[in-house]
Design a protein that fits this description.
alpha/beta; Rossmann fold; seven-stranded parallel β-sheet; five-stranded parallel β-sheet
């Protein structure tokens, strides 16, 4: 029996031993380092499965050029770079890896929140530049008793809620898909306008969809408190970057702590760089050595299941069941 062909579009780790071991005896791996479909389609034209990290977006036209492809398995959580409707229509299963870095992103969210609240990065830069003084960082408010607003109340946001409550913060959340009291984690459900109006810290945790793209805009920023700080460890395009710059310039909000930006990477120079009230990280919230193990194992495992005739675990486009190219 001939081995299946699995194309890996791109990866950010040193070794492919996990992939090779997972697919051993079933498929041959073709690893690439690409950024766009036009760079991997020549190799993927006859693939049976596609492993995908960042390369994209993958459109209906791209899928039409991979007529044998049964599954596109994303290593990460978000699938905004894949046309899910087109994949379903083409009979291609799309999977993701929704649990590998929940703790990491929740921890990073709190780290950014604390750094912004306590001016940690500001003071570090000042000390490195030769200034040893408290007054330049004023004012700083006590975290206990402040209000955290969570936009979205999924797996990661609920972990943030538990950690924030441990710091004595009051937690509000807005999520149209969650009922008040549905989960054990602390938090009171409110509408977005109320959340924006009451929160001292606003942490973003929605998936990137047409509805959430640019949801932090001039209008929503105008509803926030002047002392509010925004934390984003979700997806950069949730924030309209130009609107954020305008709000910071006008002092409509107090600052931002961003693990992800739009565009990404953020150009240099850029209006968000160099601001004392903005923290920027290079999309690092997902990473830990433990998360890397879960990240690398997830997608190849899903490919192996599909190529072995099994229904995978984390299917995003569930409507494809019963009409997939894999006969599943």
């Amino acid at each position: 029996m001939a081995l299946a062909k699995v194309v890996l579009t791109d990866y950010v780790w040193e070794s492919l031993d996990v992939e090779k071991k997972t697919l051993a005896g079933l498929a041959e791996l073709t690893p690439l380092q690409t950024k766009k479909p036009e760079e991997f389609l020549a190799q993927a034209a006859d693939c049976d499965a596609l492993l995908n990290t960042y390369a994209g977006p993958i459109t209906a036209a791209d899928m039409a050029k991979m007529p044998k492809c049964k599954i596109i398995a994303r290593y990460g959580i978000g699938v905004d770079t894949i046309d899910l409707e087109a994949a379903t229509a083409a009979g291609i299963i799309v999977t993701n890896n929704p649990t590998y870095c929940i703790e990491e992103v929740a921890e990073h969210t709190m780290a950014l929140l604390l750094s912004a609240a306590r001016k940690i990065t500001f003071y570090d830069r000042a000390v490195r530049a030769g200034t040893w003084a408290v007054p330049p960082g004023k004012p700083i408010q006590r975290l206990a008793g402040s209000t955290l607003g969570l936009v979205g109340f999924g797996n990661i946001a609920r972990q943030v809620a538990a950690r924030a409550a441990a710091f004595g913060m009051k937690v509000l959340y807005a999520d149209p898909f969650v009922k008040d009291g549905q989960f054990k984690e602390p938090g009171s459900k409110v509408g977005l306008p109320e959340l924006y109006a009451k929160a001292d810290f606003i942490s973003l945790h929605p998936p990137l969809t047409p509805q959430t793209r640019g949801m932090i805009n001039d209008e929503s920023l105008g509803q926030m408190k002047p002392n509010a700080m925004i934390v984003n460890c979700s997806r950069g395009p949730v924030i309209n970057t130009d609107a954020l710059v305008r709000a910071l310039d006008a002092k409509k909000i107090a600052g931002a702590a961003l693990d992800t930006t739009d565009p990404e990477p953020l150009p240099n120079p850029h209006a968000l760089r160099g601001r004392e009230n903005v923290i920027i990280n290079p999309h690092a919230a997902w990473y830990s050595e433990q998360a890397m193990v879960g990240l690398q194992a997830g997608a190849p495992g899903e490919v192996r299941r599909v190529l072995s005739g099994e229904w995978p675990i984390n299917v995003v486009n569930k409507a494809v069941k019963g009409k997939s190219r894999a006969g599943l």
